[in-house]
Amino acid sequence: MSAVADVVPGRPLARPAFRRLTAAWVCTNVGDSALYLMMAVWAKQLTGSDAQAALVFAVLGMPALLAPVMGHVVDRVSRRAALIVVNVCVAVLLLALLTVHDASQVWVIYVVTFLYGCAGYTTGAAQSGLLRDMLPDDELASANGLFTTIDQALRLLSPLVGTALFVAFGPGAVVALTSTTFAATAVILLTVHVREREVVKEEGPSYWTQLSAGIRFIVAEPELARLTLVLAVGFGITGLTNVAIFPVLEALGLGAEALGVVVPVQGVGAVLGGLVAARVVRRLGERGTVVAGVLLLAVAMAGLLVLTLVAPVPEPWGLVALGVGLAMGGLGIPWIVVGASTYRIKVTPPELQGRTSAAMNVSFNLPQTVVTLVGAAALAVIDYRVLIAVSAVVLLAAAALGRAPLKRSTRPV
Questions:
Q1: What span, in angstroms and rounded, lies between the C-alpha atoms of 367 and 297?
Q2: pLDDT per residue over 350-387, tens digit each?
Q3: Buried/exposed 243-253: b ≥16 CB within 10 Å, e otherwise
Q4: Domain range annotation of the chain
């Protein structure tokens, strides 16, 4: 049974349980954002190899392949208990990094990174179910928008803290900070009291049938299937932008260090997008919000293409124009995430929240990784402006798909 009826109606933050869950989200994101970049920098420092540093990000993406398993586990247990246990385990796991002192031990970084990624998918799935039990439908967009805003804001601030600690005191200081934040998150979650849905043991279906239930539910629900496809295409194709950004900077007469300016500007756009996402959902609906976000990305890509075609641009206008375009793209990203996630949580039965959350997370993480790898290979033989143009066209096609009339289906899961 949901706890919605037991709390005073209002905004999500009016609910004590949600306020505590938000505090836990802030705490865990402080540590997470400080750590993930430092791991790659540390691997580079130990080995002197760019490839081994990049491998950290590849290893971090690998748990996407196991996300359905973790979503299934979450659906079979208390989501609150799962969050507490995983945060405690991560706090302990990270201490293994304190044993790393030279290049021969870099494998420890990779193992910890992989398990850390698994923990991220598990907590994401558990949190989705907890929000479903905690909040009514009309507060889900506000909750998702707030969490996205916090995530984007801390991705701007926490890496600076992590870098400062790394430079001043070494990697051990960053590990200690992150381990402490995860332990503190577990303590905060102990104070979150919510009446969770009853865990129902699934009898009859095989394990593989249970495991794929989230994917099958998404496929069988036409609107959710379409939003997930738009999400996958929209985020996936931005992998080409990740590849093209350095040639863009060169075309504008900017050094690679300019990335340190424009990426935070994109982050500011994402923070603003998160702040207004709930309002946009109320005005446009979940689907309209996703489409608007994809269109903003398409406009940003088109502007980037025009900018490179007229380059060189007199300083500092090239940097300013690039920052404006990336900020516009950053504004659209939370709209896509909040719109799709809110709809998914609303239409998914409580017993499938973990598995549909995991499936949707894979849909926007894995395609981007694959497209980035393909784009990196293509850049050797294709002009970078072609990649940007392809990104803009595909994003427009994804927006058109989101706007197309849809005949609803009653096919069972």
A1: 16
A2: 888 888 988 888 887 788 878 877 887 888 888 889 99
A3: bbbbbbbebbe
A4: 4-199, 213-403
